[in-house]
Amino acid sequence: MATELEELVGFLSSPSPPVKKAAVEIVRDLTGSEDGLLSLSKHASTVLPSLSQLLKDKKEVSEPAAEALINLSLNLNLAAKMVEMGMIKTAMDVLYKPDSSITRLLVMLLVNLTQLDSGIVSLLQIEDEKMQGLFVMKLVRSFCRSSDETRDDPFDHVGSILVNISKKEAGRKMLLDSKRGLLKQILRQFDSTSPLRKKGVSGTLRNCCFEAENQLQNLLLISEFLWPALLLPVAGKKIYSAEDASKMPLELGNVLSFEREPWNDPEIRVEALESIYLITVQEAGLRAFWSVNGPRILQVGYEDEEDPKVMEAYERVGSLLVHGSETGEPSSETSK
């Protein structure tokens, strides 16, 4: 005889819209508690496909279904089962339907599923040569097209997906592929007013810089976006002299010649400095850094810095610059 929970899960597939709506709302509420999650996880083989189907339904049903899946995907075993059953393709298909009304929730579900290696592989479409990278290109396009002037931009969380996929070499290579031009598009979002977007761009760039040894050329090809994204957060608050600014490209010199908002997030400053370190470890990267007056920017920024972790990151780059000066580059101190 079926238990109450089995009956409830069965009602998710009911042909009656009111029954289906009531059932999915109860399931959604159950996923909000540890006990509920545990009970539902025992019926994963039924509940996950049923909820997946409901994503295609009207908003009154698809919304609680998506919320339930987000909560269930916090459990790594259940997230792995979702990836295995093709949840990423389902989420992407629904996300890009013209009448999609649960965009933010679907993006958040993708954030959770790409915490797993299998989820990253699925989103990158690595196993499908013809379609490879299509999902990522769509997400990047949406990330770059949507406006952060609205407080509730549903694509803000795409930044977190990009951070996740760039933790894997295949993801970094896809983003750095100069023919696709994805990283260039992503970096243009760095002046967004959304802290979530800024974090996403910063974390993605830092991860991509781990490929600097083999992909330095592709990073330097987008220098006009790369150096502002890396140097403006760590440039400090001072207005730079005309002499200093004249030794920088316009995209840096123009901004640093005026008063500007400080970058308050120490995590972004640390990530920028870690990225600079990964680039300047390479000889050609170090030369490129000197060519934009990078050492002077770090010197000024370091003088303003008060956070110990960020100061440590400055000093790590500083040690490379001192070494660079020993090999013929002009010296610049970044120590207090």
UniProtKB/TrEMBL annotation:
Residues 275-326 form the Protein HGH1 C-terminal domain. Residues 96-269 form the Protein HGH1 N-terminal domain. Pfam families: DUF383 (PF04063), DUF384 (PF04064). It comes from the Eukaryota. Coiled coil: none annotated. Belongs to the HGH1 family. This is Protein HGH1 homolog. It comes from Salix dunnii.
